[in-house]
Amino acid sequence: VLDSQYGMYVWPCAVVLAQYLWAHRRSLPRKRVLEIGAGVSLPGVVAARCGAQVILSDSEELPRCLQSCRSSCLMNRLPHVPVLGLTWGRVSPELLSLAPIDIILGSDVFFDPKDFEDILTTIYFLLEKNPHAQFWTTYQVRSADWSIEALLYKWKLKSIHVPLHSFGADKEHLASSSLPGRHTIEMMIISLAQSDGT
């Protein structure tokens, strides 16, 4: 039902990732940040308001989501934040010409298992170009059967779990939703695995 609208809603994962950015706001000025699958762009907007140099992106095939990114920037007095069409798993001129980045953001991008490898190939490409960078991502636990562990290993990536209580995001009101069902949110930081196999 929400298929055509999923980029038009502030999902609980976006609120949790925004909380992480706020908790680390002193480290954000002058950081170069790319948000993928941005939709309404809450994490990217928070990063920009905290002094980061932000680029927002969503699928080039979803013009309404790209317009949503632009609208969020205008509503938050950030008219100069660039918005790019980047489709996961696709090498495009926009992806190839991206300036160096320090942090990649993604809230609830691990939504549909058919997209997991495309997301991680894009992340791997970005981290190879920016070996010091990290992918900060929050996701909703939807099925115990869904895992990206094998894909992380395949793409030579590693992840670190970030406990929500460590940045004050374990409060019920932060990760709650008016949508039905439970909303267990997790956060991890993904980076390139070291050459020694870690």
From TrEMBL:
Its lineage opens with: Eukaryota, Metazoa, Chordata, Craniata, Vertebrata
The UniProt transmembrane annotation reads: none
Keywords (A to Z) from UniProt: Chromatin regulator, Cytoplasm, Developmental protein, Methyltransferase, Nucleus, S-adenosyl-L-methionine, Transferase
- Could you name the Gene Ontology cellular component terms for this entry? cytoplasm; nucleus
Biological processes annotated in GO = chromatin organization; methylation; regulation of gene expression
As recorded in Swiss-Prot or TrEMBL, the protein's gene is named: Mettl23
Q: How does it assemble?
A: Interacts with HSPA5, HSP90B1, TUBULIN, UGGT1 and UGGT2. Interacts with TET3. Interacts with STPG4.
Q: What does this protein do?
A: Histone methyltransferase that dimethylates histone H3 at 'Arg-17', forming asymmetric dimethylarginine (H3R17me2a), leading to activate transcription via chromatin remodeling. Maternal factor involved in epigenetic chromatin reprogramming of the paternal genome in the zygote: mediates H3R17me2a, promoting histone H3.3 incorporation in the male pronucleus, leading to TET3 recruitment and subsequent DNA demethylation.
Quick one: where is this thing mainly located? cytoplasm
Which SUPFAM superfamilies does its entry note?
Answer: S-adenosyl-L-methionine-dependent methyltransferases
| Catalyzed reactions | L-arginyl-[protein] + 2 S-adenosyl-L-methionine = N(omega),N(omega)-dimethyl-L-arginyl-[protein] + 2 S-adenosyl-L-homocysteine + 2 H(+)
Q: Which organism is it from?
A: Oreocharis arfaki
Name this protein carries in UniProt: Histone-arginine methyltransferase METTL23
Q: Which GO terms describe its molecular function?
A: protein-arginine omega-N asymmetric methyltransferase activity
Q: Where in the cell is it found?
A: Cytoplasm; Nucleus
The UniProt entry's sequence similarity note says: Belongs to the methyltransferase superfamily. METTL23 family.
List the InterPro entries hit by this protein, alphabetically: Methyltransf_16 (IPR019410), SAM-dependent_MTases_sf (IPR029063)
